[in-house]
Amino acid sequence: MAQLRLALNQVDFTVGDIEGNAEKILRWTRHAADRGAHLVAFPEMALTGYPVEDLALRRSFVEASRAALDRLAGRLADTGLGETLVAVGYLDGAPDAVPRLGKPAGSPLNAAAFLHGGRVVARYAKHHLPNYGVFDEFRYFVPGDTLHVVRHHGVDVALTICEDLWQDGGPVAAARTAGTGLLLVINGSPYELNKDDVRLDLVRKRASEAGCTLAYVNLVGGQDELVFDGDSIVVSSDGNVLARAPQFEEGCLLVDLDLPAASDGARPDRHTEPDGGVIAIEWHVLSGEPLPAYEPIQAGVADRLCDEAEVYTALVTGLRDYVVKNGFKTVILGLSGGIDSALAAAVACDAIGARNVYGISMPSEYSSQHSVEDAAELARRTGLNYRVVPIAPMVRVFLDHLHLTGVAQENLQARVRGMTLMGLSNQHGHLVLATGNKSELAVGYSTLYGDAVGGFAPLKDVPKTLVWRLARWRNEVARQRGETPPIPERSITKPPSAELRPGQLDTDSLPPYELLDDVLDDYVEQDKGLRELIAAGFDTALVERVIALVDRAEYKRRQYPPGPKITLKAFGRDRRLPITNRWHEVAPGHAAPEPPEVLAESGVPGGDDRAGEHPARQES
With helix as H, strand as E and coil as C, how does 13-26 read? Predict the structure, then answer.
């Protein structure tokens, strides 16, 4: 057996900041080497940030990544880190490749490299390119066909990238053929609820298939709508968890490994797949002699977060990184005293500090006194900046000129609120937060240019029932810490209402949220059709109504701000449906609906005056 001290650096990188990312890699490598690490690993495309999307198709960006990798190798050696083996993800490519239809321009590669002794000793290209959910890697990259094995201090180490682990066979099977002692997998695996359980099961399975210890290092931080939760893991070939990093935290996971010493026998140069495909195996010998025995350190296995803590931390991480990485200092949002704006405000205060959060109460003639009081109480509890801007006079001016009635008049209130927030944003440089939740967004219960305005929507992927759970959890955490719970109890317990007309409740227009979210989970998350929903026991009329609302609201979702993905199927990144769409789910024995008319009032498709525009939530 041979010893090797491994450092998995789960770090928050920024897309496009190649020089800044290189500095981080250098700094974290120094940190790990100072603690005795022999092999230091960074996540997928760490040098460029991930995902780079269409930047991969820009030749200048590919060339900048390649040049930065070479400079990084030299800088590591120049600063005394040349003997440390460093694995890092980057964007590679073949700018001189002959253009071909169906092949990305410049043949970009989602790549990883081993750096040692001031040079790039091996370059690996990702074999399996995911093209589902949030991934479009067939659009950007060409696949690799080679497994690289580096012998370092007497241990054979193979390197793969993310999706290569999720697919059967391929580089994992080739690592077994090569007889490697350690399979290192670098990842950019986005967060979704309970993915840590799926991830651990997968890592254990692949370690068994590879017949060796498997080390998995993942990104942490937010990138637009994606949040990366770290959760780096090391498991033995028999599935024993040797080390595991905390979720959502930057850090260096150090673990001492006892690994099989490399064999001096024949080294295979290929692996043949069951379908006849061949993976070439390339060998790189850096140091064949094992290290002298040393005293191992005790690796840690971090506790897992509960579901509410996972989701809440993902929302905080996503919002914080969106604000910071896009150069904002402050955020602004409407406060109504309702649950959605209260939770969004709590998330914002935890993300960037209450002093950087501006909450605006915008009461109308229909706002209840308790809602005004609850908004002020939230501000007092959190310490955010608070201001009251009554909108009734502004609404009256519009009505005097436009003579709007009914839903148009109700939605005008939301639009005046949206205009107020955007005006303050322009004046002071705040980022406007939209506070609507996934349930409302699913059924179109929002107003374009009203509660839908904003640059970021922290609750976009959070169903209403989960909003309540998160609010109660956040308050309980505060109580356990001896702090003031941030969210007023009345905001949690009172019936939801947009308060755009006298006595209005959400249940006037929607099923109870517990029932609505149950239907939406099957229809949106699980892609079940109308007949499957009815067979599952849902009322036919309810299912038809909910499906119609969801389908008609696609045009609104296309115009909604980005927000952090926390579910299996987030709107925008995961679930993509055509706006112009005549497909309708039909219950057994029911006739297909007539093509919708266009409403003159709103210029959007619908079947009645509420199909196109639903009353907006005041707090959004």
Answer: CCCCCHHHHHHHHH
Q: Which residues, in sequence order, are bridge partners of residue 281?
A: 147
Active-site residue among 19, 23, 24, 44? 44
Active-site entry in 137, 162, 225, 410: 162
User: 126, 460, 464, 556: which is the annotated catalytic residue?
Assistant: 126
Give yes or no: 349 in active site. Answer: no
- The distance of Cα 556 from the centroid of its chain, to the nearest Å, equals 21
Query: How far is CA 273 from each of CA 177, 279, 280, 392, 509, rounded to the nearest angstrom?
Result: 11, 8, 11, 70, 57
- Counting every residue written for the chain, the total comes to 620
Burial class (CB in 10 A: 0-12, 13-18, 19+), 372: middle
Nearest-angstrom CA–CA distance, 215 and 232: 8
Residue type at position 57: L
- Whether 257 and 7 have beta carbons less than 8 Å apart is answered as no
Put simply, whether the predicted model's pTM sits higher than 0.85 gets the answer yes
What pLDDT band is residue 598 in, cutting at 50, 70 and 90? Answer: very low
Q: How far apart are CA 56 and CA 79, in angstroms?
A: 30
Cβ within 8 Å of residue 185, ≥6 positions away: 159, 160, 161, 162, 164, 165, 203, 206, 214, 215, 216, 217
CA distance 263 to 438: 55
Say whether 212 is catalytic. Answer: no
Q: Are 452 and 563 in contact (CB under 8 A)?
A: no
pLDDT digit string, tens, across residues 147-166:
999 999 999 999 999 999 99
**Cα gap 42→11, rounded to integer Å:** 8
Amino acid identity, residue 284? H
* Alpha carbons 592 and 580: distance in angstroms, whole number: 17
- Catalytic residue status for 162: yes
Which residues neighbour 39 within 8 Å (Cβ) at sequence distance 6 or greater? 4, 5, 6, 7, 84, 85, 86, 87, 152, 157, 184
CA distance 430 to 428: 6
Q: How far is CA 412 from CA 338, 391, 409, 510, in A?
A: 19, 10, 5, 21
- Grouping H, G, I as helix, E, B as strand and the rest as coil, residue 192 is coil
Nearest to 24 by CA among 46, 40, 51: 46
Tens digits of residue pLDDT in 53-102: 999 999 999 999 999 999 999 999 999 999 999 999 999 998 677 767 77
